Amino acid sequence: MPDDLLSAEEIERLTGKKRRPAQVRVLRQMGVRHIVRPDGCVLVARAARDKLLGVSARVADAAPEEAPRILYNIPPIRTRRKKST
Q1: Rounded to an integer, what distance in angstroms lies between the CA atom of residue 2 and that of residue 28?
Q2: Does the pTM of the predicted model rise above 0.90?
Q3: Is the pLDDT of residue 63 over 80?
């Protein structure tokens, strides 16, 4: 099975259901786009799962050392000195 589709085990884990009609029902409730083949197999793209979980494709495909770096450009805090009396 191509890598861009979830395996039957991954769909079962995502939905918590073993039977295909129940998986389809849960996927519909979750708003996950899927296809049911003529033989009854449920197909879900990894991108659809990642979208549901809020994972961007760029971050999901990147190796840990290639993950995007977050750079902060925060100016230093300047405080006023109190005048001595």
Answers
A1: 23
A2: no
A3: no
